[in-house]
Amino acid sequence: MEVRDESTPGPVELPVVWATHRPRLLETVQRRLPPVLSAVLEPDDVLQAAYLDAARRWETFLARSQQSPPCTEYVWLYGIVMARLVDEYRRHTRNARDRRRDLPWPEASSVQLGLSLVGGDRSPSSAMVAADTSNRMRQALDQLPDSDRAILWMRHFDELSFKEVAEHLGIAENAAAQRYVRALRKLREVWKLLEPADGSQL
After folding, report:
1. Would the pTM count as exceeding 0.90?
2. How far apart are CA 112 and CA 131, in angstroms?
3. Residues 20-48: pLDDT tens digits?
């Protein structure tokens, strides 16, 4: 079956829409899957469950896609996949000591992202310096509100456009861009406080 151009009106089928966006969704799950889940679930398992979630809500999506502004295919599927990841995390950590309800940030990837955003990607002179730099970035990220970390992650690791971020959060595109700029500024300010000799520019 030919994949539908999203700009062309007409009936759509979930299998076709899913096949179009599955590669991008798979990359997102691979980056987001925390160790506690990767030990018991494959990314494909998450997508399979998310597909069933999407199938149950397909008629709702079709109705929303006719509204203004319309609900776009990828952002709708992205939201379902993220919700499925959170549900799986809560289910598999139900009896764990760490009872966080939100999906934890992949630590190494988050530190790498943070360092790249503050210009801290210089080569450390020793393993000790590298460890100290990573620890400082973890502290900086921990001091950011969840909403700030989330928008930085959506933009740089989930690779959502500002338009897609805005739709996912239910805000205007300009507001999404402004929220991103504020989050980036906060991260750099906190980093400078923790690492005054870093020399990153705001």
Report:
1. no
2. 12
3. 999 999 999 998 888 888 888 899 999 99
